[in-house]
């Protein structure tokens, strides 16, 4: 039961941070207005593969980074919570990464933008990086590690479906609908950020007091 609860929390957390509907709106804003269905499908596939590869890189090398810089798990949890809190405030305010994207358009083909900037850093940014490391450090056995990987892969697949059908979703929801979804995801991310911060501070206080 506890494993299922952890899996559910991880899945919801990843979904809220990735915010596929909000990201799809940003992606459409930096891609060509007359992009074809075939191209958007290719971009969705490449971007999804990019974030999955990035996930496994962080999952495998995250602990090494912590040890290399001498960063404690609890300190990372507090800092990660602050990063997520800032991200949540940005989502709730309604400002997005697309503010500076007008100049991103260049002679590059749309498909070349699938990895950078859509995959990294727009979709897979600091928020996901810290969250993955925090969740990895909470893993106690191989089953929990499997559920963590499964939770992310499911969200990567959902992200793929949303981005692939982003043109239709944009027409159905409209700008207002997309903003509402992003704000709701921001509230969830904010609540999780507070939880990370409080939990990290409690553990740090037990260590130093």
From TrEMBL:
Q: Where in the cell is it found?
A: Cell inner membrane; Cell membrane
Query: What kind of membrane protein is this, topologically?
Result: Multi-pass membrane protein
Instruction: Mark the transmembrane ranges.
Output: 12-35, 47-69, 75-92, 113-135, 141-163, 184-204
Query: InterPro entries of this UniProt entry?
Result: Multi_antbiot-R_MarC
- Does this entry carry the keyword Repressor? no
Q: Which GO terms describe its cellular component?
A: plasma membrane
Keywords on this record? Cell membrane, Membrane, Transmembrane, Transmembrane helix
Assign the protein's first listed, main location to one coarse class: membrane
- Which Pfam families does this UniProt record tie to the protein? MarC
Protein family (similarity comment): Belongs to the UPF0056 (MarC) family.
NCBIfam families reported in the protein's UniProt record: NAAT family transporter (TIGR00427)
- In Swiss-Prot or TrEMBL terms, this protein is called UPF0056 inner membrane protein
């Amino acid at each position: 039961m506890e494993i299922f609860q952890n899996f559910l929390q991880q899945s919801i957390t990843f979904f809220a941070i990735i915010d596929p509907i909000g990201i799809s709106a940003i992606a459409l804003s930096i891609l060509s207005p007359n992009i074809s269905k075939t191209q958007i499908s290719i971009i969705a596939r490449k971007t999804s593969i990019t974030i999955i590869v990035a996930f496994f890189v962080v999952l495998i090398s995250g602990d090494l980074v912590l040890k290399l810089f001498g960063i404690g798990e609890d300190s990372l949890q507090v800092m990660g919570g602050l990063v997520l809190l800032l991200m949540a405030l940005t989502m709730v305010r309604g400002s997005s990464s697309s503010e500076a994207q007008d100049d991103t358009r260049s002679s590059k083909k749309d498909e070349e933008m699938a990895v950078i900037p859509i995959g990294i850093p727009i979709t897979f940014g600091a928020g996901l990086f810290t969250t993955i490391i925090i969740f990895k450090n909470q893993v106690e056995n191989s089953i929990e590690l499997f559920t963590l990987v499964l939770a992310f892969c499911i969200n990567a697949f959902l992200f793929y479906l949303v981005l692939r059908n982003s043109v239709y979703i944009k027409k159905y929801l409209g700008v207002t609908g997309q903003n509402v979804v992003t704000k709701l995801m921001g509230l969830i991310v904010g609540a999780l950020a507070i939880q990370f911060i409080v939990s990290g501070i409690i553990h740090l206080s037990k260590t130093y007091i």
